[in-house]
Amino acid sequence: MALEDRIRTSVDQALQGLTSELLSISADEITRATAAAEARINGELEQRLSELQAREREESAAALQAAVQAEGARVTAEAETRFQAQLQDAVAAAVGTQLAEAEQRFEAQRTAAVVEAETRAADETRAAMAAAHATAREHDAAAMTRLVESIRGLDGASSLSEVLDALALAAARETSRAAVLVIKADHAVGWRLNGFGPHDTHPKAIALPVTQAGLIGRAATSARPAQAQVGDTDGPGFDPLPADRRAVAVPVLVGGRVVAVAYADGVALGPDGETAPGLWLEAVEILARHAGRCLEALTAQKAGATASAAGPRTSGTHAAAVPAAAPPDAALGATG
To answer: What is the pLDDT of residue 322?
Structure first.
C-alpha cells in the first residue's frame, strides 16, 4: 500500500476517530445540554408549577376568604334581620303590654279621679246648698224680723200721717226705691219717697192724674195690687222704671176706699243671672194692707172719740145727730 494511501488511510482513520470522538463529544455535550435544558426546563416548570400552585392557592385562599366573608356577611345579615324582627316583635309585645298596663292604670286612675271628683262635687254641692239654705234662712229670718219691726212701727203710729210715714219707711227698708202717694180725688200726690234722687226732698211736688200715674194709677183705679215685670216700662209715672227691675204698687184701703198707694221696685236678677233673692214684693203688700187696717182703726178711734166728745143731745124724744168722722183723704190733706 502506498504511503499516500496509508497516509490517507491513516488520515481517514484519524479523521474517523476524530469524527467519532467529535461526534461522541457532541453527543455527550448534547446529552449534557439536553439534560441541563431538561433540568432547567423542569426547574422552570417546577418553579412555574410552584408559582401557579402558589398563585392558585392564593387565589383559592382569596376566593375562599371572599366566600367565607360573603357567607359571613350573609349569615350576619340574616342573623341581623332575624334579630331585628325578633327585637321588633319583642318591642311590640313589650309596648303592647306596657300600653295595656298603662291603659289599665290610667283607667283605674281616671275612675278613681272621677269618683273623687264626683264625691268632692257632691260634698261641695251639699255644702253650697247647706250654705245657701243657711243664708236663705238667715235672709228670711232677717226679712221676717224686719217685717215684724215694721208692723210694730205701723201699730205704734198714733195718727194717719204717722201711719203713712211708717209705711214709707218700712217699704224703703225692703228695697232700694220706694214711695207712698196719697190719692186725692183723681190725682196721686207724693207723700214720702226714697231712692228717687231730687224727688225725695220734694215729694209733694209730685201730683199726677191717676190716669198718668203708671203702675200707681193702675193700683188706685183697680183697688188691687199691680206688678211690672222685667222689661216693662210701666213704672211709678213720675220716674222711669229701669229695665232690670220689677215693681209693685199696692193700694192702701180704708173701708174699701183707696186712700194711698205704696210703690216699690227692685233689681230682679243678680250678677249671675239668677233671680235676686228677697220677699220684698210680698213684704210691701203685707205692709200696705196692714197700714190700711191701721188707718181704719185710727179712723174708727177718731170717730168714736168725736162721738164721745159730742155726747148725747136730746130735745124732747129726739136724739141729736152725731157728727161723722172726716174721711181719711181729708184728714191726710189736713196733715200733709
So the answer is: 38
Which residue do the cell numbers 191726710 mark?
332
Report the alpha-carbon distance of residue 139 to residue 147 in Å, rounded: 12
pLDDT bin (cut points 50, 70, 90) of residue 45 is: low
Nearest to 285 by CA among 327, 249, 238: 249
Distance of CA 322 to CAs 76, 159, 325, Å? 136, 22, 9
Spatial distance between the Cα atoms of 173 and 334, rounded to a whole number of angstroms: 27
Crossing angle for the helix pair 3-155 and 280-310, to the nearest 10 degrees? 10
Strand spans (E) along the chain: 177-184, 187-194, 207-209, 226-228, 245-254, 257-267, 314-315, 318-319
Asked whether residue 171 carries a pLDDT value surpassing 80, the answer given is: yes
Q: Which residues pair with 179 in a beta bridge?
A: 193, 263
Task: Please state the pTM of the whole predicted model.
Answer: 0.58
